[in-house]
Amino acid sequence: MSRNTAEDIARDATAAFNSGQPDRARKLCEEGLTHRPGEPMLHHLLAAVLFSKGEVESARAHVEASLARRPDNAAARLLAARIARTAADFDSALSHLDLIIAAAPQREAFLEKARTLDQASLHQTSLREQAREAWRAILKVIPQSQEAAARLGRLAWEDGDHAAALPLLERATEGDTPASTWFDLGLVRQDLRDYAGAATAYRRAVEAKPDFAEAALNLGVVLQESGDIDNAMQAYAQAYRLRPQTFGTIAMALTSAPHGRLWIDEAALRRSLTQ
């Protein structure tokens, strides 16, 4: 029996995508659109497939085509906002999100708006406080939001407010935690001279992301500050293997800190780091 309706095609494409066959899902959507140009469901689904493959501009064209036919589709508009944010078109992303929130406020739209404001504030510092307030509002409504706690903690650290940053980042590490959050917690503890606590956080960052050169480098620094030079050298060696450009920072740390080592020449230190 032929499966010719848009719903059937979308169902088959979704099943293909969910089973790890994005190319088949794409083909099904594209073939469906040759017979049903403008079908919003297929444009929406094709946009999601393309976005997952990093084809941002093509995905954007298809989700906009879907919204042109079905402007009240909140799921398509949320996808459009995410695509626009990825393209660094923050005004467009915020416009989509405000339309969703005005029509029917939903948690995911508020989260996406906070992410968008946060990312946009890197380019437009006047949005920084709006981003902070957005994350605060989310944490108030969703106290268990690790993402909100992590971002607020990072913002507080960037402001030099370590007292505020520490509990937020410790709260953000309760559960499955990304390497970046462990790293930020390490930074705060390091600035507060809690070298043992910082070392624990940096180790967790490296465990979560084994190629995290910055975390390995900072682990070496805090271990050295603690007087544990042998383990510091192991951490430095890991950082150097991951990113040879860290050599200058390692050399400076070793020769300038109270607990360091002297090297006759650069080549000797490089050999030590590769043994």
CATH domain class of the domain at 175-275: Mainly Alpha
User: Do you know the CATH topology of the domain at 175-275?
Assistant: Serine Threonine Protein Phosphatase 5, Tetratricopeptide repeat
In DSSP terms (H or I, runs of 4 or more residues), the helix count works out at: 16
Q: Supply Rg.
A: 24 Å
Secondary-structure-based class equals mainly alpha
Which regions contain 5 or more consecutive residues with pLDDT less than 50? none
Order of helices and strands: HHHHHHHHHHHHHHHH
Strand content: under 5%
Principal-axis shape equals elongated
CATH superfamily of the domain at 175-275: Tetratricopeptide repeat domain
Number of strands: 0
Helix-strand blueprint:
Elements: H1 6-18, H2 22-35, H3 40-52, H4 56-69, H5 74-86, H6 90-103, H7 107-121, H8 128-141, H9 146-158, H10 162-172, H11 179-191, H12 195-208, H13 213-225, H14 229-242, H15 247-256, H16 266-274
Helix pairs in contact: 1-2, 1-3, 2-3, 3-4, 4-5, 5-6, 5-7, 6-7, 7-8, 8-9, 9-10, 9-11, 10-11, 11-12, 12-13, 13-14
InterPro entries: O-mannosyl-transferase_TMTC, TPR-like_helical_dom_sf, TPR_rpt
Pfam family, one: TPR_19
Protein name: Tetratricopeptide repeat-containing protein
